[in-house]
Write a structure and sequence with these properties.
74% helix; 4 strands
């Protein structure tokens, strides 16, 4: 096919969007709503996973060194802990800081601390607060730290890790089911809408077929029309999702207590997912619109 012929078919596709603006608008609305529903479900899932990771980061390993360890021994133990593959962060807690924490946690015993102990923390051990990358193996990491020279004990809460693992499995199953159901329903609705659009022009397709037009010649304008409609729907879906996401994000981010308690600080800023989400919306919208229109012409081309 000549370049002029391809240009003609492309122009016909764009013209058809305007000529059949009511059906194009119906397709646009269906594709846009479908993309928004699936997109929001996907964003909810990845943010829930991020929140679970945020909760997991609060599950720390408390490391207590032997009483009287030197600064060199503490540094050696810190380097050994830091070298473990599952360790994320490590914070040194001096004996003086540990004593202050004890005073704060037992305010009723302040007189005892001040009268008998004072500021002498020589009887207290130094320690570390360690967070891990993967809570699923926090028990193994705790055992590895316990074996390091100079460490008196290392303790964690494997029950918390088990709960988070089960929670992640449940969230993954529920979210996957919802997303798959939304995709299936959306494809059915989009298919019916594009079929209705093509059906309204079945006589035009049949006339083109009878005068000798090839199948590819007939399909091309519908392909371009569907792609343009789907692309515009993807743009609209992206900006709608952006506005909704930003509104919800700003509302939640102001709740400092919720952020600290439930790991909501782990909600992903829109800037981090803006480009992948835009690409997903535009590509999915264009493909759905184009393929839906082309597939729907098959029945009326086979005459």
């Amino acid at each position: 096919m000549k370049v002029s012929g391809i240009r003609y078919l492309i122009n016909q596709g764009f013209d058809n969007v305007w000529k059949n603006k009511m059906m194009a608008f119906a397709t646009f609305c269906v594709v846009m709503i479908s993309l928004i529903l699936v997109g929001i479900a996907g964003l909810f899932y990845i943010n829930l996973n991020s929140m679970i990771d945020g909760l997991g980061s609060q599950n720390e390993i408390v490391v207590i060194m032997d009483v009287g360890t030197s600064e060199e021994q503490n540094k050696a133990a810190e380097e050994a802990i830091r070298s473990l593959t599952n360790v994320d962060t490590i914070e040194f807690i001096s004996k003086e800081a540990a004593l202050e924490r004890q005073k704060e946690s037992l305010p009723n015993a302040e007189k005892i601390f001040e009268g008998y102990i004072g500021t002498d923390a020589s009887f207290m051990p130094d320690g570390f607060s360690v967070t891990v990358l993967n809570n699923d193996v926090i028990a193994d990491t705790t055992e590895e730290i316990s074996a390091i020279q100079g460490v008196q004990s290392a303790s964690s809460s494997p029950q918390v890790a088990e709960f988070l693992r089960e929670l992640r499995n449940v969230v993954t199953f529920v979210a996957s089911t919802i997303i798959i159901a939304l995709v299936i329903v959306s494809l059915i609705i989009i298919s019916n809408t594009t079929k209705a659009s093509v059906f309204s022009r079945r006589e035009e397709i049949q006339i083109m077929k009878y005068v000798g037009a090839t199948n590819s010649f007939i399909r091309m304008p519908f392909f371009i029309e569907g792609m343009v409609t789907g692309f515009v729907a993807g743009v609209a879906a992206f900006f709608t999702t952006w506005m909704v996401y930003r509104a919800v994000y700003d509302m939640i981010i102001d709740q400092a207590i919720l952020m600290t308690t439930f790991g909501i600080k782990s909600i992903i800023p829109f800037a981090q997912i803006r480009l992948p989400l835009m690409a997903a919306y535009l590509i999915a919208g264009s493909l759905i619109g184009a393929l839906g229109s082309v597939i729907s012409t098959r029945k009326h081309i086979d005459v």
